[in-house]
Amino acid sequence: MSNVDLLSLVRDKVKKLKAYKVENYDCDIKLHANENPFSPPAELMESFRKSLEDFKLNRYPDPHCNGLKRILSQRWRTPPETLVVGNGSDELIQLILQIFCDMGDAVAFPDPTFAMYSIIAEGMGLKPVVHPLDENWDFKADEFLGAVEKHDPKILFFSFPNNPTGNCFSPEEIKKTIERFRGIVVVDEAYYDFSKKTFIHDIRGHNNLIVLRSLSKIGLAGLRVGYGVADPLIIDQINKVRLPYNSNTVSQTFSEKVLGNFSQVQEQIDTIIQERERLVRALSKIKSLKVYPSASNFILFRMEHDAGTVFKKLMDKGILIRDLSSHPRLKGCLRVTVGSRDENDQFLLQIENLTRAENLTT
Ligand SMILES: Cc1ncc(COP(=O)(O)O)c(C=O)c1O
After folding, report:
1. Distance 241 CA to ligand 1 centre (A)
2. Is 122 found in the same domain as 222?
């Protein structure tokens, strides 16, 4: 037997943290996590099924992800030395913090943005510094740098498009920031496929820029595949701290198939973009909602009603979206992921009913 005071052994910084809350209620319609509503195309599934027989699951995966990097390299016209694969892009965020920051260092980003920048940084004993976005959810490089530089941040993060606001920040302001800042700038393009705007081609002239991508939003969330593009010197440092087998055989093989035969996935993406536009038009017709423009696969909207109540009532109807209303800048705000046509119709029907219903406080 042993009975140790375990909490006394845990670092103070970790004790103070709250675990990231993943809402995974048992709802039929899940429009809360910015996933692709469609399964991978049947042809790809079939080709994957056939390749299972060739898998050597008793062997470790390729630690360098050479096959996947070859395809990414051709697709984005960037040498393999500029690429690194992560167990989701979340892992790459953590590795980047690990190589550029010492305990207590600051990292900065606009607010509101993707919660994991702050959560991962705090877990590592770093100091997140935030600067508020303007009323169009955008920022000016001079103002942003002027406000955060006194904290001497080592890294700046920009979600492009920004989660949860949905828009892309002005590319000129991001470019200006990359050129003026003397540290590392991460442009997180997890939602690139829905915005089609990228900084990948700016890597060549900007050695302090890291672009992150994810396959989670285009149908492979369950496989956890993200990748980074940066100057080879940065990639070398990431490779020093990355666990050698961070990307497993199944994830590598399936991602190669998807990226090597992208046309059917592109059709899914095109459908999601069309559905996004339809959802935006329909939501904009509801007078008590303010709908924010989206270049991603989700839509942020603000309600005159109590957002928490609407969120719960939607859940009662089997529809899970994201309640963001506890953030001071997002009072009354909910975020809905674009689903299939049928899922979107059901969501629209319920939200139209709820915003009309008299039992909701206005
Ligand atoms: C802006 C942004 N970056 C990164 C991620 C994480 O993606 P992954 O699933 O590749 O870890 C998300 C997921 O929601 C995101 O919204």
Report:
1. 21
2. yes
